[in-house]
Task: structure prediction
Amino acid sequence: MIMKLKVASARPTTPAVLHLRLVHPQRPELPAWDPGAHVDLRLPDGRVRQYSLCGDPADRTAYEIAVKREDAGRGGSAWAHENLLPGAVAHVSAPRNNFPLVDVASEHIFVAGGIGVTPFVAMARQLATDGRRFVLHDCAPSPEQAPLLNELRAVCGRHLREWFTSEGRRFEPAEIGPPRDGTHVYACGPQRLLDVVRAALSAAGWPDAQIHSEVFQATLDENFKPEPFDATIASTGAVLHVPADRSLLQVLRDHGLATASSCELGVCGTCTCGYRDGVVIHRDVVLPVASRQDRMTPCVSRARVSVTLDL
Result:
C-alpha cells in the first residue's frame, strides 16, 4: 500500500539531515507501527529508499523520518532535501518492521552511528514510557553533526551516552561489557561500525541471538563475481536458469512468478522466499543468521549450481 502523504514540516536537525513530519491530507490517523519499523519512500523515477520511523509510536497522526543528504550517493536523498518541502506530497508505504525490540529482553543496549540513531529514538521513547532498562550509545563527529540530538536528550535522559570525536570521546565495544542473560544489543549505522561491534561482541562470547543490526545500504563486494545457476520451483518442478548477469528475482518475474519487492538491494526484506535445498550465497543485510538456512532474498542472493525454491 502506497499513501500520498503531505509534508507538514521539514526542518534541519543537522546541516546534512532533514527531519520530516508527514501527515495524511484527509485521514486523521495513519497505520499503526512499532519501534524499529521503517517506511519506503518512492521517488518519481520509481526508485525506493527506506527510512526508519523516528517519531512517537503512540502518535498516529503523523510519520516522522530523518533523511541524510548523501551528495556522493545515488540521488535519492538529494531529491528529498530539494523537493520534500512543507506542502509537498511524498509517496510512502505502510510501515514494516525488520528490526523489532525483543519483548522478552530485560535490558536493551543501543549503539548508533550518525543517522543510524533514527530507529532508536522510537525504541528509547517506548522503553522510557514503559519504565524498562536501556542504554543508548550515540556516536557522531560532533554534537552539531548528531541527528535528533535534542530529541534523544529529552527522551533518554540519564540513559544516553554521547560519543563525539570532536570532544575526544570515541565509543569502544568494551563499554557494553560481558555477555548477560536477558540483555540484547542493537546496532545501526555505517557498516564499519556494525562490523566492529559484532566482531567485538562475538569475541567476548555474546551469542548471535542477542546481537541485532540494521543497515539501509547495499552490501558492496567488488570481488564478487556472479555465476549462473538453476532454480527449481518445488510446486511445479520447473527449472529456471539464472544467468550471471541477472538476478533470481528478475528471472522469477520473467516466468510469471512475481513476488513482492521494494528496495531490490537486499536491505528491506520484502522479497524473501523459502528454499529447500542448495548452497545459497546470502548477499542481503536483512535476514538473521537463524533464518538463512531456509530463506533467501532473490533480489541479491544467489546459489552455487542449483537451488530448490519453496514456491
Summary: The first helix runs from residue 76 to 83. The two ends are 23 Å apart (CA to CA). The helical segments are 76-83, 118-130, 149-156, 191-203, 248-254.
